[in-house]
Records
---
Amino acid sequence: MWILRINMTDQSYKLEDIPEEYRQLYGRALTSQIVFDEVPPLCHPLGPNNKLIFSAGIVTGTTAATSARISVGAKSPLTGGIKEANAGSAWGPDLARLNIRALVIEGQPKEKGAYWGATIEWDPTAQKPAVVFFDATPYAGRDVYEVYPKIFERFGDSVSVASVGAAGERGYANSGIVFNDMAKRPSRFAGRGGLGAVMASKGLKFVVLNDKGAPGVPIADPALFAEGKNKLNDAILTHDISKPKGGLNTYGTAVLINILNEAGGLPTRNFSSGRFEYAGETAGEAVFETNKERMGKEIYNHACSPGCIIQCSNTLYNPDKSERTSCVEYESTWALGANLGVRDLDDIATMIQLCNAYGLDTIETGGTLGVAMEAGIIPFGDSKGAIGLIEDMGKGTPMGRLLGSGTETTGKAYGVTHVPTVKGQSMPAYEPRAVKGIGITYATTTMGADHTAGYTIAPEILGVSGKVDPLSAEGKAAMSRAFQATTAFIDSSGHCLFIAFPILDIASGFEGFVQECSGVLGTHWTADDIVAYGAKVLKTERAFNEAAGIKAEADRLPEFMRLEPLPPHNQVFDVPDSALDSVFKEM
Amino acid sequence: MRVKVRLYASLRSYLPGMKIGDTTELEIQDGACIADLFRELHIPREIVKMSFVNGISREPDFVLNADDQVGIFPPIGGG
């Protein structure tokens, strides 16, 4: 295993051995550690001193189910702090099988507007990965749906591709890095925090991986790995949420729209209500039934990446049976639906497709458009106007560039006080005033408002891992802390976070998950060990943020959430600051 | 008394023909609880995971009042 460094100042590369202190670090743990060790905390995120790091998880590239996650880290142009965003794609397993523990992109070319691609293949003679650069400038500024087929045509069907769209090229703080799905769609995003702009700032347009002939991932204790893998598989395949034709496979992640709406926690019209009167029309059930009507049969969801046995990715089809978009995620249909007062599923799908085409994060885009509607640029519910504004973002008009800077900047430009961000990052699809634990996660995570960082929704709304009252703050700081630490480990394991549903409820599944990781590494970890691993990751990230000027005072929700009661429960966010501070103080 | 009911995800098949987002009004006996509603709708209790009454999660023995709005879910998750 190596660390592969690509220097974009002169388009050179070198392979380094993995330092002893990185031996057990993978995925988020490794991207965050390298950012901490090598990126000056006060550097400009789009300048020559920032670095972009890719790392797959501990079990990524093995036969472990649902484990094809790739973590991407850097200093974020959106939050000014550390960022890790991850995606499911064949790209992650390919990187792992090429024996590249971390791919570090550094430096910056002098030429403005010039782009390169890097192909990484296995050199069978040298028994090492090798990098070849190519001119990618002709691909710049174009829709990624137009560009991806040309890349596959040029490099072959078996490669996997990471890229950025026009949003990244323009330096938007709202821009993601896109990876291909199983059908070669450019639709799997490490979306949050502006990492697309970091990649583009280095003149890097593509990283194309070909794992042909590569040795694969070594497994220290194959028997332990196999035992763990079987236990985790059984848990995934039997739990009602993750099993075949279960909730995720049938309705996708957007199945959550209705339950959050019933619970009064679905942020609506820029976080002014917890209920959207047309929520059902934008939900996973609507996607499933619309497809059934248009296609004449029931269509179950597909895998975003190889080896996934949950398979939650949907496709929305047009009346003429052509594909409208894939995938309509919960976060996306909320951000561009309820959050904008938009009920038209087809228009929401169009917006998702445009976000993908331009390389925008759907959550940040929806948050920004919600603030734009609050500012009166277009009215709530105006889906055609919203489509037009996303097109402005893609084309780079002055308005589009403002919106591409994200929710907080747009709020400042228009004097809006109702701006749902933490540390500059737009909130996802759960209302903190109606679900207090997730509000604590939003406030305290190192990432800026991020639901995945500590998904207390499981016990607060879904009845997974017990049931707790979402409106109560009692015990929620400790709950968020525990979820955040465990999540930091899951994000380092390479597994999709959705294994949390079966492993939280099924003890043997959790045991199998830990055994799988131990099997790869030759360790004998317990549950305590993985929580300690995750906590160490969080402390490293927090130390970077503090050095970047983001201190405990930033662990707060926007003031309006303490002032304005949210219907229907008419609650404010009443978690005391001392409870927020205790999340890290007591870690 | 009458209560308003919405079924979601796979439970939608217990009220066939309901349009998405529509609410059904059901006549039930005074003092009936959520579990009585399951029986009325022929929904096996073990396939229900979460029930919300007026936006608050309630257990099956929770006693309903007239005009309550009830939302019933099988196990679901996402994110």
---
Amino acid sequence: MNKGHAMSEDDVPEGGMSASREGTMPEGEAAYDAQDPFGEVRGCLERGELQRAQELLEQFGERGAEWYFVQAKIFRAKKWYSESRRCLKRALAESPENETYRKEYNDLIFLAEKGKIKKQHARADMGATAQECCAEAACTGLCTCLGESCDGS
Amino acid sequence: MFGYVRYDLPNLLIKDFMLYKALYCGLCKSIGASCGQRARLGLTYDVTFLSALLHNMTGTDVRVERQNCFEHAIRKRPIAAVDDLTMELGALNTVLTYYKLADDITDGSGGRVKRAWFKKGYRRAKKRYPALVSLVEEYASAQAEVEKKRSPSPDEAAEPTAQLMRGLCAHFMGERSTPAAEDLFYAVGKWVYLIDALDDYEKDVKKKRYNPFVLAYGCATRAELMQAQGQEIAFLFDTLFYAMREGLAGVKFYFNRDLTDNVILRGIPLETQRVMRGEPYREMSGELKELKA
């Protein structure tokens, strides 16, 4: 059993780790561009062809930080946020200075923060802050949070 | 994996409470009409919620009438009249119950007698709604595949249920289906699978049954799991709440949406909290007289 990760480290990344070379030529029929080895995968991702993107990505023998980053993008497009975060952590572990990876990771964390439901203020019309909600409710005498989450003004 | 999609009673308006009860009773009658009386025992909160959501999203008005039923033989109750949508949802309820019991048998949890009870209803549903049943069959075989593979990824393990819900959205809404609506159904389906897996954590550890959380984190109890991996689990559910809110924001509703909003924005997070804290399952308050106390 693997502790600490939703998927074993070797599950998605079947190949070895390579920090020096990020992705070698895929073994399949995909067009290979030495300047941007993941260009074809990104193209599929942009067109929403997620299955094809995954197939192409799996053809890469060696898997470095960029490989994990692209895998994270595919997972995110599939709405597999947990797997996406795991891959981003792996990419960041290899390239901690990479701003793009960091931004994508923070973006995911922010998304989860937005998902947190405020205890007293899950509202049907959504998007209203606690203060807006209470201010509006106070006008009609309906604020029920008793100052727990707002000043009741 | 039934019974998790519930309302949050203290924040439910009386009109929505009455509507929910009418839909619940209406679904029960529809199960009887589409799959036979025996199948009514499989009635679930989850499909009642789908009834509320789909009536609203497809613009199908709910006609509430005062009727009797075998449980309420003397005093008439407000009950949602049987319509085409509820009839098909009644069949869905029966098919899902049948497959859940089949899954229990595969897991070694018994249930052969119960499954036999629903077999006739399942056959009637299959004859009447072949497209619907083939959707559920596809889901069952995809789920069996994931379990056979023993995937330790909660995302991957929940994918068949999530895709079933996406498929049901497209099936019931037809041309009215939108990506936002399908994303909403997808997120709800994924939540249903994951909350059930988390709730059954200790049972699955004991019986050595497939559970992605057990394979992924390997803790002996749910309490240990929450202590060691609480942030990971919270992230998983918070992103699902986000997806539900995003889906809700893009969905067109034809009628008042307070009931379904209550379930999605309050009931589902509350149930998540209950399971994460390891609190016991509570029956939903179902009678107005209970509220008087």
